């Protein structure tokens, strides 16, 4: 058994922020911060009405919840070994990991306790890649996704919403360490329907952006084991439509949505459904908003490249752009941008595809000022390849 006086060996997560000693009776305040019961009670009895770490006011100092998940972790740490940074690769069957799983899987455990357990998993992963690997091997990704989407339709506020957000964030972190095939759990029951419900009804941008990141990981996975999930995503047009609709929202969500749409376009069977569900209109709207942002240089190239890809590979994309009142004009505005030659190249290529067999598109592009934009591009410091493409488009317009 470990000596509790061995301060240097105590993982930081197991120390009380007030006393800096090993937790004996960890309790959590309404602010989400955990302290040793004796230390926080002494703080409160001195007349303090704020959280010592965050300094947030405690509207009801009597709300103190025992942190059982942390207590279990410390108990096992004391008995069988370190789960902190010194343990580079613990077994998936390590008692502490088993204890965490039991808390998260048990129907009798309160939502707030499960929330604390997920927070602890996230913190442990950030401290030690070895722990993250052990959690992946133990099937924790699938468990977290079940927590996030298993009962999402019944609770979109309060503790339930917090658990969804935390479980989704933690699952995404673990997926950076492997376990991609565990994503197949989304094929179970109503998991995809719960994702759709959250995209449409969640008030949290973090959840919507997280679902887009999850879809991106699914789409980009080369594993043959997720091909069935690829097919289900392609068939779920309501889910695709909801992701496309996020392209018109605030940057935190729309930037995640553009990554998801771009990734889905790698899957040939899904492209036509994306176009059918309004992807081109969403992309044009996204580009119109993104061109004014400080991150324009970073976010515009993938958006324009996705437009170009859809125009090349899905015939109905041309009609979708031409039917959009801002479609051609927005692409023309992207032809010459001082800070983005990659953006210029995609815009020129997209306009070449559009104007190739459409006199109406050529006329609209000329009216939008494309000739001036192309001449400026040719005189700029862009590559010879882009200048050649610009000259080809000028010649096409002249015809």
Fold and architecture overview:
- With about 400 residues, the protein is mostly helical.
- The protein folds into three domains: about 1-135, 2-Layer Sandwich (Herpes Virus-1), CATH 3.30.40.10; about 140-275, Alpha Horseshoe (Leucine-rich Repeat Variant); about 295-399, Leucine-rich Repeat Variant (Alpha Horseshoe).
- About 60% of the residues lie in helices and about 0% in strands.
- It contains 21 helices and three strands.
- A three-stranded antiparallel β-sheet has the order 2-1-3.
- A hairpin with a 5-residue loop joins strand 1 and strand 2 (about 35).
- Helix 10 (about 225-235) runs parallel beside helix 13 and helix 14 runs antiparallel to helix 15 (about 295-315).
- The longest helix is centred in the middle third of the chain and has 18 residues, at about 160-175.
- About 45% of the residues are buried.
Throw out a few tags for this protein.
62% helix, Leucine-rich Repeat Variant, 399 residues, Herpes Virus-1, 3 domains, disordered N terminus, 21 helices, mainly alpha, elongated
Present the secondary structure layout.
Elements: E1 26-28, E2 34-36, H1 37-45, E3 65-66, H2 68-80, H3 95-105, H4 111-127, H5 129-137, H6 140-149, H7 158-175, H8 191-201, H9 205-220, H10 227-235, H11 237-245, H12 251-264, H13 268-276, H14 279-290, H15 296-313, H16 316-323, H17 327-333, H18 341-355, H19 359-367, H20 370-378, H21 384-398
Antiparallel strand pairs: 1-2, 1-3
